[in-house]
Amino acid sequence: MTFSQLDFGETLAAGAVNAFVTAFLIGIVAGLIVKRYEAVHELRLQTLELEHQTRAALRTTYSQLLVAQRRSRQASAQLAQAGGEKSAPELAAEAGTAHDEFISLYHSLNLDASKQMWLDVRGLRKILDAMLERARSGDATGCAKLVGQARAARQNLERSFRDRLGHEPLQERKALGEYDRLPMNAGERP
Predict the structure, then answer these.
(1) Is the CB of residue 121 less than 8 Å from the CB of residue 106?
(2) pLDDT tens, 72-124?
(3) At what angle do helices 8-81 and 89-110 cross, to 10 degrees?
């Protein structure tokens, strides 16, 4: 039987069934599209929330690291001025503890750091390691020379931290000489 052989009632019934099936299929497809959109939207929200949490943790760790590096730097300078670990064992213990605190936060920061941050914080670590070594031996002059480089390394880290957060850096990157972990060609900016 063909469609042309149907009477009016049968044609109407066939049209109704056809409209129902079409509406049902469109409803299923629309439902799938909506579910897909909701899944993509949910994934975007989760990604934004994860980035927000990462940035918050990174900010907290960074601020703690700044305090720890300053304590380590100051403790090393005091130990060096006092003549080293043989002359001031209490100051040597304090300098070692302050440096250990910095190292712990250094490792925490590296978990969420960009490559540039990682290189900059490594440069800072190498300077603080050298300061502590010179301080333990009582080399006040050598330790004092590294204070400026430690500050420059901290500023480089701040610059790369701002970049990681999507902010414009406020200052130019400073070369750290032998402690620089980010190679720079002449006239090139990282």
Answers:
(1) yes
(2) 999 999 999 999 999 999 999 999 999 999 999 999 988 888 899 999 999 99
(3) 160
Residue 130 tokens read as: 């050298």
What is the identity of the amino acid at 27?
A: G
- Distance CA(175)–CA(189), nearest Å, equals 11
Q: Are 14 and 6 in contact (CB under 8 A)?
A: yes
Where residue 69 falls (left for φ over 0; alpha for ψ -120 to 50; beta otherwise) is alpha
Q: Report the alpha-carbon distance of residue 17 to residue 11 in Å, rounded.
A: 10
Quote the pTM value.
0.71
pLDDT in tens, 10-34: 878 878 888 898 988 998 998 889 8
Residues with Cβ within 8 Å of residue 155, at least 6 apart in sequence = 171, 174
- Tell me, what's the pLDDT at 1? 63
Q: CB-based contacts of 68: which residues, under 8 Å, 6+ apart?
A: 98, 101, 102, 104, 105
Say what the pLDDT of residue 113 is: 85
Which H or E element spans position 135? Answer: helix 115-137
What tokens does 147 get? 């204070």
Q: Which amino acid is at 65?
A: L
Phi, psi of 120 (to 5 degrees): -65, -40
State how far Cα 148 lies from the chain centre: 25
